[in-house]
């Protein structure tokens, strides 16, 4: 039986599934329900400094986009950090940690960008005996207008400075949460590392407008006729988040820096993918907000079953296993050739592969053969682009089949070369390096 | 005295008023907004979609479903009506299980097609409820066209001709327009007087004058029409009913199924409509099913369909056969009527002979079966009655007993077109009649506007 116990920068939890700092972790009631459901840990919803708490809007806080059958694909929110009194939160954190010692409780923090503010909050958090802190440098709405959240996270120098303050003023592990609303996520990650962070977590939410009401001509969610960009999350952001995790995992400066992966994780498979790319554990929010805490049962069982099936004994066997395979485009093997293949038994003859290829790609799939509706790949035209695979509604009906070395590629008329050759040495590349003799 | 189900003979009032209302409610209740969205999301928007190719009127089904899913039911209705102005009725009565839904790729993939018919009804219902008219008449051409029969073929032709700016006069033998939509078709497929609502919707375009109680051969001849109109479209359907060819079939209680269905459709009070306690229906098509199921719904205790061939030969679709079975109708195969047994002039039983295929030929085996029956419905097909065609002009050429037409719907007479069940090749489907009426109208339009006078 696979061991899925997690040790993330010294913070132990029975599984790698944490709830991210967000509405599901705003108070003891929710967190206790989550722990009862089996979640390995939580990042408590972001605390602000002592004093009157922030206030939230009293209209809609969330917007969404949906796929077929109104399945939620992307969620955005304009909720701020906790709007509950600091002392109430601290008391609850302390009690819950006492009652659930085997679960991880990390406290998310966001206070003004001056050292005194951080010096003030760190000891009171430490006193709760929470396992660590997460610096919220990501929140893209509201707080950023006040010089906090993403306003810090978008300036690497600020990140480094605040991380340094925190490391100097607490014994707790520091996880720096990064915003995706930047051009190159490696820069803030390097800054956090330079400041001494124990780990980074990413991604926070993405600036977004989920919809426009075409009667009132107002963005959604709409508060009294107006809307504001909110933070986007959910399954739709997973590819963006995974790329950012991989970029940090494979960067020569930040390689080895522990990463807590966040962004659209909904199933065990999503979690395994994040960890394979280098995440030491994962944080989940939207999936819980969509389906409730029970989804962790599927995640735990799914991860264990997959690991058992593949013979992975512990999480260390899978974390970062895919990182070395993430490379730059210029290093991809241009001599590799794959062709689409349509399983005629599985084909339901919807024709989507044909029309996608015919209208928008390479005219490489038939629609009619000998007067009969029939969809078949024309290998002499197929560039192996994979679009047909992606639009086919039947899983595994269309597959990409690599051509073996030596086999004639009917499109180019050349046999598949056994030699790895990439763009850096390609004759069409004006900056090509001359291949070594 | 026996009441309800147990009344002997042919009698009305077998059920309570509530039971009549329940029994004759909408067979497929309309999809509500949420259901329509869920269902429309199932459509894959196939390329060169099989459903569209299976539709006799070639409605762009993927497009109209996508329009429903994107919150544009009015645009969806327009897509439907562009091809089929009687899309509302077709959504109710089309045997979709043997047309669009049979070839839906979801049927192939999951055995569960997208419910195209119900989605079509959803969109057309919304447009019709809003009295949304999509078409304006073209500048009047000054041409006149006579249409014989206000059934699906005639109405489709009339609408398309009116759109093109021609003046259309529709001559209908019955007191109401609609043809089989009004007088045929099981009541639970067209509730709330939908047939008349659709006639009103179609004729609202203007330029269509429907004259009722005008019978060809009695009140006018084809020669009158060819003389007084620039073109003529014949869409009179089938006037005759095939005989049982069984001894004693003139006994009281032996009725044409189409007449029974027609009476039922026109009845203002179903409890006043008499039906037998034990009913036997002879036939294997939709009419047989409609008569049998409705007999059961009117309170008949036992209803048996007897068909002379096997289940696989029945014209009624699998869905219709299941519907009959679900309503308690027994379907028996390989039985042909031999003799109607009467007592005091009234049916008391029917003697049937077992049949078998001898090579390609169906033959009686000599073995018989007698079913007690106080009512027997004949539903063994309708036939074209050509007699009315022959007044005062050259005879129209027939083929296999129906009017012969070319690919555009032209008959052998100049300026006379035909479509619907009355033509050779008609397949007894509302939707095919609509396609033929529409296409003949286009042919008429081309003929009327290419002769230099328009």
CATH homology-level superfamily of the largest domain in chain B: FAD/NAD(P)-binding domain
The class by helix and strand makeup of chain B works out as alpha/beta
Strand order of the largest sheet of chain A: 3-4-7-8-9-10-15-16
Fill in the CATH topology of the largest domain in chain A: TIM Barrel
Could you give a short account of the major beta sheet of chain B?
Answer: 5 strands, parallel
The CATH first-level class of the largest domain in chain A comes to: Alpha Beta
- In the residues of chain B, how many domains can be counted? 3
- Low-confidence region ranges of chain B: none
Q: Strand share of the residues of chain A? A: 15-25%
CATH architecture of the largest domain in chain B: 3-Layer(bba) Sandwich
- CATH T-level fold name of the largest domain in chain B: FAD/NAD(P)-binding domain
Q: What oligomeric state do these chains adopt?
A: heterodimer
What fraction strand of chain B?
15-25%
Q: What is the averaged pLDDT score of chain A? A: 96
Please report the total strand number of chain B as a whole number. 17
Radius of gyration of chain B: 23 Å
Enumerate how many helices of chain B there are, as a single number: 17
Low-confidence stretches of chain A: none
Please tell me what the overall shape of chain A is. Answer: globular
């Amino acid at each position: 039986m696979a061991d899925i116990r997690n040790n993330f920068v010294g913070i132990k939890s029975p599984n790698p599934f944490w709830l991210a700092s967000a509405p599901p972790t705003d108070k003891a009631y929710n967190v206790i329900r989550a722990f009862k459901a089996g979640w390995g840990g939580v990042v408590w919803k972001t605390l602000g400094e002592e004093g009157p708490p922030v206030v939230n809007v009293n209209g809609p806080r969330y917007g969404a986009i949906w796929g077929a059958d109104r399945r939620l694909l992307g969620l955005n929110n304009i909720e701020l950090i906790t709007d509950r009194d600091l002392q109430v939160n601290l008391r609850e954190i302390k009690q819950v940690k006492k009652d659930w010692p085997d679960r991880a409780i990390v406290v998310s923090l966001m206070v003004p960008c001056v050292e005194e503010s951080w010096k003030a909050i760190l000891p009171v958090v430490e006193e709760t005996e929470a396992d660590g802190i997460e610096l919220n440098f990501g929140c893209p709405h509201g707080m950023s207008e006040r010089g906090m959240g993403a306003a810090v996270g978008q300036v690497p120098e600020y990140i480094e400075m605040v991380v340094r303050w925190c490391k100097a003023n607490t014994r707790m592990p520091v996880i720096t949460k990064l915003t995706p609303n930047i051009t190159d996520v490696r820069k803030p990650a390097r800054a956090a590392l330079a400041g001494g962070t124990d780990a980074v977590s990413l991604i926070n939410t993405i600036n977004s407008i989920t919809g426009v009401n075409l009667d009132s001509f107002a963005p959604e969610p709409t508060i009294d006729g107006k809307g504001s960009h909110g933070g986007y999350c959910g399954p739709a952001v997973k590819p963006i988040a995974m790329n950012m995790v991989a970029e940090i995992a494979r960067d020569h400066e930040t390689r080895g820096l522990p990463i807590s992966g966040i962004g659209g994780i909904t199933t065990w498979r999503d979690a395994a993918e994040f960890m394979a790319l280098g995440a030491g554990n994962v944080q989940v929010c939207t999936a819980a907000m969509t389906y409730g805490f029970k989804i962790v049962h599927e995640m735990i069982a799914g991860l264990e079953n997959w690991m058992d099936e593949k013979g992975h004994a512990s999480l260390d066997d899978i974390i970062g296993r895919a990182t070395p395979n993430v490379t730059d485009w210029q290093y991809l093997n241009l001599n590799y050739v794959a062709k689409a293949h349509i399983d005629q038994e599985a084909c339901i003859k919807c024709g989507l592969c044909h029309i996608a290829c015919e209208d928008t790609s390479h005219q490489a799939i038939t629609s009619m053969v000998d007067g009969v509706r029939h969809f078949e790949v024309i290998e002499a035209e197929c560039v192996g682009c994979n679009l047909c695979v992606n639009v086919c509604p039947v899983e595994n009906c269309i597959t990409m089949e690599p051509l073996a070395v030596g086999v004639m590629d009917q499109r180019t008329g050349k046999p598949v070369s056994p030699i790895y050759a990439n763009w850096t040495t390609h004759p069409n590349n004006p900056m090509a390096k001359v291949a070594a003799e | 005295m026996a009441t309800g189900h147990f009344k002997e003979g042919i009698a009305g009032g077998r059920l309570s008023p509530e039971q009549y209302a329940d029994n004759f409610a909408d067979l497929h209740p309309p999809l509500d907004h949420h259901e329509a969205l869920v269902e429309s999301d199932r459509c894959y928007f196939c390329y060169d979609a099989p459903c569209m190719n299976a539709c006799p009127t070639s409605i762009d089904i993927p497009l109209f479903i996508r329009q429903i899913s994107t919150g544009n039911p009015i645009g969806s209705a327009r897509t439907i009506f562009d091809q089929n102005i009687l899309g509302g009725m077709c959504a109710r009565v089309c045997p979709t299980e043997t047309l669009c839904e049979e070839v839906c790729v979801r049927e192939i993939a999951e055995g569960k097609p997208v419910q195209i018919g119900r989605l079509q009804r959803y969109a057309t219902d919304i447009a019709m409820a809003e009295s949304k008219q999509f078409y304006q008449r073209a500048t009047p051409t000054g041409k006149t066209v006579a249409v014989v029969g206000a059934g699906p073929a005639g109405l489709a032709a009339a609408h398309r001709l009116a759109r093109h700016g021609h003046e259309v006069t529709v001559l209908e033998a019955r007191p109401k327009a609609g043809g089989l939509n009004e007088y045929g078709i099981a009541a639970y497929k067209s509730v709330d007087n939908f047939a008349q609502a659709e006639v009103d919707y179609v004729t609202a375009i203007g330029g269509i004058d429907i004259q009722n109680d005008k019978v060809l051969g009695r009140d006018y001849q084809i020669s009158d029409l060819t003389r007084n109109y620039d073109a003529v479209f014949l869409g009179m359907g089938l006037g005759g009913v095939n005989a049982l060819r069984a001894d004693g079939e003139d006994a009281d209680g032996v009725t044409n199924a189409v007449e029974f269905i027609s009476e039922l459709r026109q009845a203002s009070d179903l409890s006043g409509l008499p039906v037998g306690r034990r009913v036997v229906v002879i036939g294997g098509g939709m009419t047989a099913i409609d008569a049998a199921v409705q007999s059961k719904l009117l309170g008949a205790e036992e209803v048996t369909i007897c068909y002379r061939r096997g289940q696989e030969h029945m014209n009624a679709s699998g869905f219709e056969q299941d519907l009959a079975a679900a309503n308690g109708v027994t379907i028996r195969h390989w039985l042909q009527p031999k003799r109607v047994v009467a007592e005091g002039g009234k049916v008391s039983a029917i003697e049937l002979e077992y049949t078998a295929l001898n090579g390609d030929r169906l033959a009686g085996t000599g073995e018989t079966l007698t079913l007690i029956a106080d009512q027997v419905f004949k539903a063994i097909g309708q036939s074209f009655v050509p007699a009315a065609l022959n007044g005062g002009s050259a005879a129209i050429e027939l083929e296999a007993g129906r009017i012969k037409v070319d690919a555009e719907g032209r008959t052998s007479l100049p300026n006379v077109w035909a479509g619907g069940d009355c033509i050779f090749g008609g397949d007894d489907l509302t939707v095919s009649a609509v396609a033929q009426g529409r296409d003949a109208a286009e042919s008429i339009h081309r003929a009327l506007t290419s002769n230099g006078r328009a």
